[in-house]
Design a protein that fits this description.
The chain is of the alpha+beta class and 183 residues long. Helix content is 28%, strand content 29%. It is built from 5 helices and 7 strands; from the N terminus they run βααββαβαβαββ. The two termini are 31 Å apart. The structure holds coenzyme A.
Length: 183
Amino acid sequence: MASNKEKISITDIEIEQINDSHNPILSNFKSYEKELVDFLVEDALDNQKKQMSITYLWFLKSTKELVAYVTVLADAISLQGELKEHFRQQGILYKSLPALKIGRLCVANEYLGRGIGTLMIEFILVLAQRISKEIGLRFITTDAKRNQEPRKDSVHFYKKFGFEILRQREKGTLPMYKDLIKE
Ligand SMILES: CC(C)(COP(=O)(O)OP(=O)(O)OC[C@H]1O[C@@H](n2cnc3c(N)ncnc32)[C@H](O)[C@@H]1OP(=O)(O)O)[C@@H](O)C(=O)NCCC(=O)NCCS
């Protein structure tokens, strides 16, 4: 899956929030994670109109091709177990803390392994830091998609960026989080 093609830089990318004008091109997007294509085609715009999430489409400036998308929404982590203890020791006794959730994050098959996933995580970190100046925001969360093939298992991808496992779960996804003010 890793490609030997050149890395893509953020200056090669144009980011747009999804809107009605994008409808005709959404079904051209291809990913080995079918559910993520279905979400983009069927739900992303509708969910945004209902203020349940925002989807950022990533286009290559040179070809206008849709190469990736990321969907974000508000979330909270319920503090339990070790994490609850960790915050208690810092005098933080709340039952839950605010988070920004990566609802979906997907790079098109043809563009995998060229650094776009990394750029999207950086984009979310910048977005989170900005939001945290306006409303309380302590974590980034996600439900990482599991895949039998290690190179397609997104848990490893998120771990690279300092995401930790929130709790084990016997389903197709694993809840993960990143503390925005942890070194
Ligand atoms: C996970 C995903 C977003 C990564 O995007 P990408 O553009 O290929 O990632 P990058 O090129 O920025 O790779 C960054 C690093 O993560 C590694 N990596 C990428 N995808 C990985 C995966 N699925 N598992 C483990 N490591 C992965 C790369 O090898 C690279 O490591 P390196 O810096 O040591 O070379 C992409 O594989 C994808 O869209 N998968 C399908 C959807 C999905 O699983 N989304 C996440 C859950 S919703």
